[in-house]
Specification:
heterodimer; A: alpha/beta; Rossmann fold; five-stranded parallel β-sheet; 5 helices; 5 strands; 42% helix; 21% strand; globular; B: alpha+beta; Chemotaxis protein chec; six-stranded antiparallel β-sheet; 4 helices; binds magnesium ion
Chain lengths: 130, 161
C-alpha cells in the first residue's frame, strides 16, 4: 500500500524538502498534493483521497492550527493522520496540537525522525532504499 | 545589548546552517566576500520584533542545492529557489531563537520572511531596539544577523537585555 500525501506549507522549498525526505526515508508514496495555506489544504482534502497530511503552522490566509481545528471538526476527517512540521518552540501550543491528535516534528529535522513518526502514525514504512 | 543574546544567536544560527544546509563554521574565512543578499522575518506575540539575515552571494547556490537535494542535477538552483532557501533558513533561525530567549511557554506568530530589495540590514528601526548582532564565517561565505525587539523583551525575555 502506498500513501497519498498532502503537504501544506507556504514555502515551496519546504514542501520540496518534505517530499524529498519521505522518498529518502523509503516511505511508499502514492499521489503527492501540495497546498500553500490552510484554506488550500482543506480544499485538497475535500477533493482528493488523502492518507497523511504534513502541516506548517505559520501560513498566510489560514494558519495550520486553524486548519487542524477545521479538519477535526469534520466527522469524516477525525482520524486523518496529521504531522505538524514547524520550528514551534511553545510547549503550550505543541500540547494543544497533540490534543487534537497531531504529531509534531521540530525543524530542522533529520530524515530518520520523519521516518519514525510516519511509521508511528501510519504503521507503514519500507526499508531505506540505498 | 547583552552579550548573552549574541552568544545564543550565534549558536542557533551556526547550528541551523549546519543541520539545514551542511554549511559549517570556518573561523578564518576572511576572503569570502561581504554579505550582499538580505532577508527579514517579523514576529509578534509574547513580544514582537524582527530578525535580519544577510549572506554573501556565494552561499546562496550551495544553500539551495543542499536544502533541495539538487546535487545530481545538471542545472543549478533557480534564482527563486535560492531566495526561497534563504527565507526558510531565516525562518528556522528565528523560530529556534525565540524559545531560547523567551522560554517554552511563550507563543509567537512568525511572519513569512521577505527579501530586502536593496540588500541592506538597517542600523535601527522605528519600533524596535537592537538586541543582538553577530557575524558568521562559514565554509562557503559569510553571514550577518541582527535581531531587534520591542522594549517588552526586558520584562518578558528570560535574560535582561
Ligand atoms: Mg510557514
Amino acid at each position: 500500500m502506498s500513501l497519498n500525501i498532502l503537504v501544506v506549507d507556504d514555502s515551496a522549498v519546504v514542501r520540496t524538502m518534505i517530499v524529498k525526505t519521505l522518498r529518502m526515508a523509503g516511505v511508499p508514496i502514492g499521489e503527492v498534493h501540495q497546498a500553500a495555506n490552510g484554506a488550500e489544504g482543506l480544499d485538497a482534502i475535500d477533493n482528493n483521497w488523502i492518507d497523511l497530511v504534513f502541516a506548517d503552522l505559520n501560513m498566510p490566509v489560514m494558519n495550520g492550527e486553524e486548519m487542524i481545528e477545521k479538519i477535526r471538526a469534520n466527522p469524516d476527517w477525525q482520524d486523518l493522520p496529521i504531522i505538524v512540521v514547524s520550528t514551534e518552540g511553545s510547549q503550550t501550543r505543541i500540547e494543544r496540537l497533540q490534543q487534537r491528535g497531531a504529531k509534531f516534528i521540530h525543524k530542522p529535522f533529520a530524515p530518520e525522525t520523519v521516518r519514525e513518526v510516519v511509521k508511528e502514525i501510519t504503521g507503514i514504512c519500507h526499508e531505506q532504499q540505498v | 545589548m547583552n552579550s548573552k543574546y549574541n552568544e545564543i544567536l550565534q549558536r542557533v544560527a551556526e547550528s541551523t546552517f549546519e543541520s539545514l544546509a551542511f554549511i559549517l563554521p570556518m573561523p578564518d574565512n576572511e576572503g569570502a566576500g561581504w554579505p550582499t543578499v538580505a532577508v527579514s522575518v517579523g514576529f509578534s506575540g509574547h513580544f514582537s520584533g524582527l530578525l535580519f539575515l544577510k549572506v554573501s552571494d556565494g552561499i546562496l547556490p550551495e544553500l539551495a542545492t543542499n536544502m533541495l537535494g539538487l546535487e545530481d542535477e545538471q542545472s543549478g538552483p533557480s534564482h527563486e529557489q535560492q531566495n526561497d532557501a534563504l527565507k526558510e533558513l531565516a525562518n528556522v533561525i528565528c523560530g529556534n531563537f525565540l524559545p531560547e530567549i523567551a522560554g517554552t511557554e511563550a507563543e509567537f506568530a512568525v511572519n513569512a520572511p521577505e527579501i530586502i530589495d536593496d540588500g541592506e540590514i538597517p542600523e535601527a528601526t522605528d519600533r524596535y531596539r537592537p538586541v543582538a548582532r553577530v557575524q558568521l564565517n562559514l565554509d562557503s561565505g559569510n553571514a550577518e544577523l541582527s535581531f531587534f525587539a520591542e522594549e517588552a523583551i526586558n520584562t518578558k525575555g528570560i535574560i535582561a537585555a
